[in-house]
Write a structure and sequence with these properties.
The complex is a heterodimer of chains A (about 325) and B (about 170). Chain A is mainly α and about 325 residues long. Chain A is about 35% helix and about 5% strand. A 4-stranded antiparallel sheet of chain A has the order 1-2-4-3. In chain A, a hairpin with a 4-residue loop joins strand 3 and strand 4. The longest helix of chain A is centred in the C-terminal third of the chain and has 20 residues. Chain B has about 170 residues and is an alpha/beta fold. A 4-stranded mixed sheet of chain B has the order 2-3-4-5, with helices on one face. In chain B, helix 2 links the parallel strand 2 and strand 3. In chain B, helix 2 packs antiparallel against helix 3. Chain B is globular and about 60 Å long. The relative contact order of chain B is 0.14. The chains are: A mainly alpha (about 325), B alpha/beta (about 170).
Amino acid sequence: MAAPMRRVARPRPWALRAFATVSSPASDPQVANTLKTENTKTSKSGKNRKQIPNPRTTKMTVGQDWMSVYPSSAPFKPSAVPLPIRMGYPVEKGVPMAKEGNLELLKIPNFLHLTPVAIKNHCAALKDFCTDWPSALDSDEKCEKHFPIEIETANYVSAGPSLYNPKSRVVTLKVKLSKLNLDDHAKKKFIKLVGERYCKNTDLLTITTDRCPLQRQNYDYAMYLLTVLYHESWKTEEWEKKMTEADMEEYIWENSRSEKNVLKTLLQIKASEKTSAVTKEELLGSEEVENYKKSVVALKNAGDTENNLSQYKEAVKKLLNLI
Amino acid sequence: MAAPLFGGRCGLRVAVAGAPELLAACRGLHATAACCKNRAARVRVGKGDKPVTYEQAHPPHYIAHRKGWLSLHTGNLHGEDGAAERTVEDVFIRKFLRGTFPGCLADEAVLKRRHNELLVCALLLRRLPPAKLYFLLGYSEALLAALYKCPVRLCLQTLAARPVYKRL
């Protein structure tokens, strides 16, 4: 009997193939078939017998521990999954293809490692590392009161040799200005310093940092910005005293041109009428001037609305009726 | 080979000596554009003796209808980067597998990426003894991991024969 010999690599006609496989012409018939399969007669030693063990499904009991079969995510193994699953579009008058050698079953993600029992065990194992939510923080207001600064970060999960995603470095810091200890001047200066990052309606300051490569660095930078803004807004510089009316963000009646004009007009009127000399304070304190002041302040601060304009009209009429 | 369609035949009919089937050939003027048949990833229908696998039997327009994807990664999702890099890696890995397991691949390899781990699922024929298969498995894992600097896992499944879906 011929000893097992390596086949010489040369093109062989198909009919000589004793092996049971039917291969497509695309496969390489010239590769030496080193697995001795043509020896179906039992040889002297057990070495040459085909030793393909039975699939694991034949050794499974009904009450087995499934977690030992699929402990973590793994591709579909037909020899380890004891289900008669079929997948594929069937040929005419046929059935979907069986699970052995089914590429479609390999392609799809499977969750065989996440049975309810497995998840329960995972949770039990993770429970040791978890702590309860602090019972004192049971409402949103309390959370806001004790932790006024909100930090927003995003982490990205993607597939590839590098786990680093440049979008994950962005850090957003949100804080309400009312929680910070700022007096009137400090608050105005703060708002001027931050500019567009402050929303008047919600009283929310939003600082977004992304200039550093790491999330940690951007978080430190955002906290640094907040600290610097706070300290700077409390300081008063020399050049701040030169603030003109155009710089002010809010219209203040006292010492304004409007006040001076009204006083001048009223004094002139009073002088021309030669009534008893009325002092400035009395004029300012009178009701008509108060109304006028309110309407002018509303107009300048809130803008031209119907309400404001009609208020201004009434105030002026009443003021000039003083005459 | 699909013959290009042409309009406005105005040429000589040339009889080619010794090749009677070429009598119909005509040196004509092609006034319209050629519209060639699509040949991408298609196995042409033959006499019925060509066994094809499920993967080979379905042309690409059946992807997402009857076929899944052979390569799964997040690069093609909206707003994600790296699609081109993953594709180039895939091409190399498939070539590498074809060379490492010569004649043993029963079907295309399925490449899955989970975070930075590369999972290669391949169907093999039982052409090599198990010892050699294990060696090639370790060799591919080590080499690919060294090349791509990420953990690579090879999950092999051996079959006695290629799973035949149809005979075309």
